[in-house]
Amino acid sequence: MTPSGLLEDTYVAALQYDLVDVSPEATLVGVVRRPTGWFRTTIDENFPALGPPEDLLNGFKQRHEDFKMQGLCDEGAHNAAWDGIGFEDRYQTHLTEAPNAQDAVAELTDRLRNEEHLVLVCFENTSQKRCHRTLLREHITGRL
């Protein structure tokens, strides 16, 4: 299998409720800045540096709430906030400019090259909402 074929992503509830089939050999890698206790018990390890930076996360949450107050459904408010604050570009900048994020990406890339199967995990169900972990997966895959 190619290194990029060893990288997957999912959300924590899918793991908790057996909604996804994950190889028992896979390492579950959290990519959240503020993991909860129940999140930590589901994953094998967490890289807070790969979560969105605090200013981006806080700005996103505020815009999300603003859009919900305007009457948008949760998914619509989520995606409108994502676009409204330029989430994708700002997160990509974080990955390429923050030293701790660069180090974490380099470590995960090396592990994939050494044929470790990794599954990136965060909170969002991406069937309706955009999520940073899919951007991260694409970013890492581009480095392989």
UniProtKB/TrEMBL annotation:
A Pfam family that this protein carries is DUF488-N3a
Domain (DUF488): residue spans on this chain: 25-141
At the top level, the lineage of the source is Archaea
What protein name does the entry list? Answer: DUF488 domain-containing protein
What is the scientific name of the source organism? Answer: Halalkalicoccus jeotgali (strain DSM 18796 / CECT 7217 / JCM 14584 / KCTC 4019 / B3)
